[in-house]
Predict the structure of FAD-binding dehydrogenase.
Amino acid sequence: MADADVIIVGAGLSGLVAAAELADAGKTVIILDQEPRQNLGGQAHWSLGGLFLVDSPEQRRLGVKDSFDLALQDWMGTAGFDRDEDYWPRRWAEAYVGFAAGEKRSWLRAMGHRIFPIVGWAERGGDAATGHGNSVPRFHLTWGTGPGVVEPFARRVQEAEARGRIAFRFRRRVDALIVTNGAVTGVRGAVLAPDDAPRGVSTSRDVVADFELSAGAVIVASGGLGGNHDLVRQNWPARLGPPPKRMVTGVPAHVDGRMLAITEAAGGRIINRDRMWHYVEGLHNWNPIWPGHGIRILPGPSSLWFDARGERLPAPNYPGYDTLKTLEHIGKTGFDYTWFVLTQSVIRKEFALSGSEQNPDLTGRDWLLTSKRATSKGAPGPVEAFKQHGVDFIVANSLEELVPRMNALTGDDLIQLDRLRGQIEARDREMANPYAKDAQVMGIHNARRYLGDKLVRTAKPHRMLDPAHGPLIAVRLNILTRKTLGGFETDLEARVFGHDGRLIPGLYAVGEAAGFGGGGVHGYRSLEGTFLGGCLFSGRNAGRSAARAA
């Protein structure tokens, strides 16, 4: 007799969603995770909680006109699907955009999920209308950030646990899938020693016993490989230049990619493993939780961006425009870091930090504290803390003081004062009029035409060398590992294909392990707010499909 109808490997968001759907359908579920219970929710807990929605009430209230057709045009132009194996990723993309334009918001809202009223504008593109980027703001911030996304599903699962429908088995490391007559029928692995380390802190891998469990189906919800720099470099595509020698890490150490190889060994087919999503605005966390802990800046459009030699990055490599194209450009410079140069006025209005722990106002659902973002003379508290304590920040009253300290920080002595000054002064001359030929300045004016950006995300246009807006700030930016865009090839029911092109009975994959759907729903690039959404959509599809099959 099987131990459960379905076993889920991974207690992150996609696994919780699948489990909740299965329990609601009356099925029994065992959820395994190598981490302790305090890590329930996985990476999603640490996220900012952004969700991609189309034609939402929040957009309409801000005067944004969006539609399924426009969103699909943006998605396809961004994804750049161009491979034979993109058949299912493309199908998932069409279905997901329909979900984001349809029942996604109401489905979440019925569970108590709420959205912050200002819609963010991420990945603004910079090419033609059919190219990469969001034509309109679509980044809907969860009120409560990542924990606010996890909360409804954790509650549903814990209620099912109390009813006996779901059983958690924490500190269970899966080492193999059991395959019987071509079907996946269970898992085996190691029981790890108990560990009470706080959430996100690395835990021990001491083995105290073995285990084996059987079920009618197994759902792999184990995440990606962003915590394993060796695997990141192994899969790094040549089109992005050589892999960085030095990176900071945007996910806990347990995001190690182990389960990808284990599932592949059982017959699952991984596609698009060279597609990945790493950020170019990473900071060394001055108060780290996991090894190499990095935090991403979510920048507004005004900071001037320079490479390691002090040359301004070309269009459309501006803050918040095109992450992958900027990553490609940086890779070909021969250096693994770049610089923002900005003013106190810019950091006050435009700097936010990704992550639930870096946004206590939004995470704590504190309206009074959140309102201070618009009224305070300083940047948000966590940003000011990085400015004061972060190794990547330099604050000075003049370029003459700033440049030597930039060179001293890197030890490369690459930036020339006169060259940097000339580029900044040239840009400053463009600020005399409400129009310009500098594409970044044009983008600033465009951003401020959108009410949400004008209120909270884009500083009033000004000259960078105007002392009234000082002091000057330089920020060293590092490559930050984050997401795997490829993964196990799945049909729309999240069933995994084998190496022979046939579906493997009893095997499902969701979330990052499945490239957020189909083996790479994003193609080459993300529109942002789409990773959590991919976990929600693929987890829901898998849970409902496995329930029908069981």
